[in-house]
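[job 4471] stage=fold_predict status=RUNNING
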Amino acid sequence: MNAALALGRESGAVNAEADIWEAPIPVIDAARNPFARVAAAAPVAASNFGRICAVLRDPVEERVVLEIACSLGLEADPDAAEAAGLVTHSRWHGELWVQPRHELLGHAVAKRLSADETLAIHRAAGEVLGGRRGLRHSLAAASAVDDALLARVQDIARAVASPAQADEAIGYLRSILGLYDEGREHDEVLIEIALLAMRFRRQQLILDLMPQTEALPAGALTTAIAVEMLAVAGRIPDALAAAEDALGQADVPGTAQGRILAAHIAGIQAQFQLMTGDTEPIPALVRRARELVDAVLPGDTDAASARLRWMYTGDGQRMRLLGWAMTAAARAGDMEAFRAAFGELSMLIAQAEASPELVDALVTRAGVQMQSGDVPAVHADMLAASAVLVRAPHAWTAGHVRVILSHVEYLLGNWAASEAGAESALSLAMDVTAFTVRPVTHFTAALVAASRGGAATVGALLEAGERATISRHESYESSMAAVAAAELARAAGNPVEQLRACSDPALRSMVSTTHGWKTYKVEALAALGRVDEARTALADLRATARWQPHYGSALWLEARIEDAADRQKRAKALYEQAVADPAAGLFPFPMARARADFGRFLLRVGDADGAAAQLSQAAEVFTRLGASPDLERTLALLERAGGNGSAVPTDPFAALTARERQIAQHASRGHTNREIAEALFLSVTTVNFHMRNILPKLGLSSRRELRILAPTA
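[job 4471] inference complete, writing structure tokens
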């Protein structure tokens, strides 16, 4: 109790205004640890057993602990250790396992050991355990590098085939690195670490080593490392300058290794140039990079060092380069170059096998398809990219896959899938290498919450997105924050705030955007009765090549303006066209808003039956989506129209939590638990758990009843 009070006093002393990462974190030392007396009072044999477990920390077989004690010449009694409260036992796969009873207890026990005692236990554990568990302890005990230890780590590093394995190998190599003084051996291990991080996009794990990587001897290999490290750290101009310096050296492509490195450096130079938002140099950079990729000879990958072979992928690199060229051409309005790049890229995508480069190509193609309004094609590409990510999770644009898919699901009215995708994207946002996606990850996650009127959630997400911003350039939907803010204001029925959200002059200079914010601007001006300004804004919207009706059709917006101008005949004709427009029907939420507006208009001009028909259809969509603010307004109008609000299907999942709702919606479509788990990025065990809660909450006994309850969920 006293220790807890002391901890509370120290925590309370932290300045409430301090940044959370700068606030001091109180550490409980061994003397003040409330478990320290337990450890001190234990018998010798129990204490010895507990000490070994405390140093090992993780659960381990009881026989292993006894073998370590024997090798150290120590008496150890597992039963006495458990009776003294030092360890806990569990049985798994027929084996008895032990671990410290509590983390703080283990801390107290380990702190009472001398450095020599701790090293002796680690050394013995390394010999007894063997394998990778033993390697961790051997590294902890090492004070110098021996050939056998280095060989074990290098074997693991060279066999890495996934990001998770790369993380493990990087940890081992970092332990080795710490044992070397500055010199050739130190630099070789550092290069090995950096190359693993580059290959599997794990640069975030080694950003603290950046001063050391920058100090490596000059050369094409160390330049390639420096370029990526600088870019991931947000120092794009420095990265571009380093790449240009390396490519300017005439002798770089003179060997097999040099040709592979030159092609790699040229490719990432074009990629990082795209991150600046200045696309004018891209065509020339891509041409040079393609020449260098084509210059790699058939036998070069065999002749080069094994640790560099991953850098050359031939058509994989060409796909990436075509993506950058296509994006630059689209922004420059060079349609001939755009069509040529798009056609060649699509041909390579069609014949490509699963790879990080394929993910990047699909994402790039999806970006330009979104600009052209082909949302179904974007959806198909992102579903394909998601499937490839299972086998190649270390693509540069892995984060973009989750964000774009979440956004598209929102537009198509699949809000449960959108929420699930956004949650997954948020949880992984700080792990992705492409830092430009971090802000838009938060902004996209705000969309569903905004449409449901969740002001606090939206505010927190927009603020978090701003904090995550390193560069103002975003390669997908730069204006997403404005769209989310405007959507929240629209849901709240606040056209003044809605107009403010989409009136920032900076929005006009954003190139990576569908200009959806212009939809909200026209609607807000019409709602405020500023008809002339609304007409000007609509003309601007229609003149914008990249505007698409994802948030509402131009016909609906024009009807809204004529409605505000009280030009009833014209407004009615436009509303009728808007709700019959098959292209706009692809987006159920804005179509429902158009129907609600049409119903309000018909009610105003005295057509109660027509109003009730439109309002009922709108209410059904709002109910399915859980768009409560729109639903409340629509039901109020429906009541005035003499319609039967109770006839509108109620939300069948109202009793469920957000996660349960997501799972129930998938289950109501006949999806299996495994299919649901894959769609929502959950484990099958988690889905099983939620399904056991969902059915009783809804008063159901089977999944078949769930499909009957919500046939259109």
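[job 4471] summary: The first strand starts at residue 60 and ends at 61.
[job 4471] exit 0
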